[in-house]
Structure formats: structure tokens, C-alpha cells
Amino acid sequence: MAGIYIHIPFCKQACYYCDFHFSTSLRNKESMLSAIKRELILRKNEFKESIETIYFGGGTPSLLNSLEIDSIIDLIRMHFQVTENPEITLEANPDDLSKEKLEELSKTPVNRLSIGVQSFFDEDLRYMNRAHNSKQAIDSMEHASKWFENISMDLIYGMPTLNEKRWEENLQFTFDFNVNHISSYALTVEPRTALDHFIRKGTYKAPSEKKAESHFKILQQLTKAEEFIQYEISNFGKKGYFSRHNTSYWKGLKYLGIGPSAHSFDGTRRSWNVSNNAKYLKSLEKDELSIEVEYLTVEDRINEMIMTGIRTIWGISIVDIVTEFGQDYKEQLMKQAQKHLQSGILYLREEQLVLRPEKYFLADGIASDMFLIKV
Predict the structure, then answer these.
(1) Residue 343, number of CB atoms within 10 A of its CB
(2) What is the per-residue pLDDT across 205-224, written as a single tens digit (0 to 9) for each?
(3) DSSP state letter for 50
(4) Chain segment 36-56, per-residue pLDDT in tens
(5) Residue 4: enclosing H or E segment and its boundaries?
(6) Residue 327, SS3 per DSSP
(7) 145 backbone dihedrals φ, ψ, rounded to 5°
(8) What percent of the chain has pLDDT over 90?
(9) Is 260 in contact with 243 (CB distance < 8 Å)?
(10) Is the pLDDT score of 374 beyond 70?
């Protein structure tokens, strides 16, 4: 199985923390959609596997209308082998999700919404420079739940404006809407973002790692009490509602990324499109692809299996390491993992190295400890 990711590089305004590729000008939207369709056709033979998931990300894909969404999905069905019941996700912002827009979306093949609420409080939303306000956040969720059964909500924690009481209230709002999936991330300060600039100038207070860790523990406790399963560090789903698309990333399955800045993976190499709308459009006008390619070494591939596997309930598969790369690499991996096994941070479960959930906040550091050098 494989997935297709469609990057829609447009937003109404720039969130202060965001370092994704996008433009706030919609002037070239029609040309961009034509280029995205052209890229899909040019790359139709890259994967022979059936397409199980289609994901519209961005940017803000909810800026598209139903006809534009339908036309892209129809083109994918025309040129790729798509499974009978694919998961088709659309990322959406609350300010786009009017009653009329949601009814319109419900008539498309989109069967999963990922709604970027981030917070139900105006002070937090202003700190992040989100385009919506708290009323729009609440209204969008009320309307969406009437038209869609499979809804994921995005929440951000760790902001200086967010205390523990308000974070608990944010989570309770989420539970009250009966969503079956939550993606929740700590606010991070990425280089060259507006937030980074404001913090350096001293006009914004920097996020606190201690506060983020406290919020993360509350998140784990309250979602567990509501019968969510933390199947990846930042993702919580009710049984049967894990994101199939994102799970394919963490399990190392193939995916095709379409649109400016989009990444692809075919099992042995990664590739990514140019992060420049004008250059992307110009290349597709000539039926050319502006793509850079990185061929992964065995060590690169194993390290990626470590980095992604340790973040999930499935852990790092020792069987897969042996099957794909050989016994020597298993022995080196176990040697690297030994101190964490002895301390109890990691444990073995049916030939899988698994990180204990209470240690998830340390996952990146533990993964880097286990990275392999050449055998």
C-alpha cells in the first residue's frame, strides 16, 4: 500500500510559529492546481502499489472549493490504482468551515477532516496569529460534527499564554465534541519564523520546556481517561480511528508528495520538490520536475526506523531489521539500546523495542543514542 500527499501552498495569513512552505497570495491558485495535476500525471508510474490514503495538506487546503477537490481526486483515480475505501483527509481551518462549506465538502469523496483549532481561547490564538477566533473554532466543530464522522482536531500546548487550567479546558472542549482523533504538539520556535524574531527582539515571551512537559503529562492523562490510545507521541485516536496516512509514514511505507516542497519516499530514497511556487510553476509549464533526491544508506534507513518506531506504540521491529538488513545490524542495535533496556526506559515486547509512554517526552534524545554507525 502507498499514499499520496497533496501540498496546497496557500494560507490567508501567516501563523507566527509556522515554518511550512506557503504563500498568502492566492493570485496563482488556478495555475498552481493545474501544475499539481500535471505533476500527478508525470509521476503516475513511480509507484505500482495501490493507493490507500490521499491527504490534502498545506498551507490551507480548505481554501479549495469542492469542484477543485473533486477534480484532483478524480485525476488520482484515473492515473493510479486506488483501493476501494481509501482514507481521504482534508486539513481545514475553522474560519473556512461555514455550514455551507461543510455541506459542500460532505458531497466530495473527502471522508476525514483534520481541523486546525489549536486553541479555543482568543488570547492563545492571537499569540499564534491564527486566522480564526474562539467563536469560529466552536462553531466549526459544531457544524463539522453534523456532516463528518471521522474528525481529527489539532491542538497546541506550551504557549506562554496557556496555563494548566486553560489547557484542561481546551481538552474538555475537544472531548465534548466527541472527536475520535487528536493531534497535539508543543509549540516550538523554528528558526527564521516570526515567533523566533519576536522572541529575539524581546517582544514575545519564549515557550517554557517545563510548562510544555507539564501540559504533555496532562494530555496523556486526560486522553487516556477518555479512552484515546496514544499510538504516536503526538497522536491520540479512538479504536479504529488512527490516521492511516500518518501511520504509513511512521511504518516506513511508500508515499508520493505532490506540490511545491512536498516530500516523497519509495523505500530506498527520499525526494522533495522545490520550495518555491514560481519555480515549481515554471518547471511544470515545461513538463519538468524540480526535484532533489537523496539515496539512503543502510544506516540512514535503520536510523529512520529507530526515529519513527520509537515514537509509536509499535516500537522498533527487530524482525524487520534482521529481515531487511541482517543479523549484524540487529546485534549493533541491541548493543546501542542496552543501557535504556537496563534502566527500564525501553522494554522488549515480541521482538519489538518499545519506549514506555511516560518517557515519550525524551524520545528524540533516546533515539539519537541508538543511531547506528556503519557496521
Answers:
(1) 9
(2) 999 999 999 999 999 999 99
(3) P
(4) 999 999 999 998 899 999 999
(5) strand 2-8
(6) helix
(7) -65, -15
(8) 95
(9) no
(10) no
* Residue 323, all three cell numbers: 529481515
The answer to whether residues 349 and 319 touch, using CB atoms and an 8 Å cutoff, is no
Picking from 169, 152, 143, the residue whose alpha carbon sits closest to that of residue 116 is 152
Q: Which of 185, 334, 253 is nearest to 4 (CA)?
A: 253
Q: Kindly state the average pLDDT of the residues 306-324.
A: 95
Residue that has been written with the C-alpha cell 472527536 in this structure? 179
- DSSP annotation of 82 reads E
Phi, psi of 104 (to 5 degrees): -65, -45
CA 241 to chain centre: 15
Q: Which residue has the cell 514560481?
A: 278
- In tens, the pLDDT along 325-372 reads 999 999 999 999 999 999 999 999 999 999 999 999 899 999 999 998
Q: Is residue 288 packed enough to be buried (19+ CB in 10 Å), middle (13-18) or exposed (0-12)?
A: exposed
Mind listing the pLDDT tens digit for each residue in 252-267? 999 999 999 999 999 9
* Cα–chain center distance at 191: 19
Residues 214, 224 contacting (CB under 8 angstroms): no
Q: What is the Cβ-side half-sphere exposure of residue 5, based on CA atoms within 13 angstroms?
A: 24
Give the number of other CB atoms < 10 A from CB of residue 304: 16
Interaxial angle between packed helices 327-343 and 363-370, expressed in degrees from 0 to 180 and rounded to the nearest 10? 140
- State the DSSP H helix or E strand holding residue 88, giving kind and residue range, or none if neither: strand 82-92
Please give the single-letter amino acid code of residue 153: M
Residue 214, burial from CB neighbour count under 10 angstroms (0-12, 13-18, 19+): middle
Residue type, position 320, single letter: D
Compute the distance between CA of residue 257 and CA of residue 364 in angstroms, rounded to an integer: 25
Q: What is the pTM of this model?
A: 0.95
Cell numbers describing residue 350: 515480541
Q: Residue 3: beta bridge partners?
A: 53, 255
In the beta sheet, which residues pair with residue 236? 182, 230
Cβ distance 345 to 356 under 8 Å?
yes
Quick: pLDDT tens for 269-305: 999 999 999 999 999 999 999 999 999 999 999 999 9
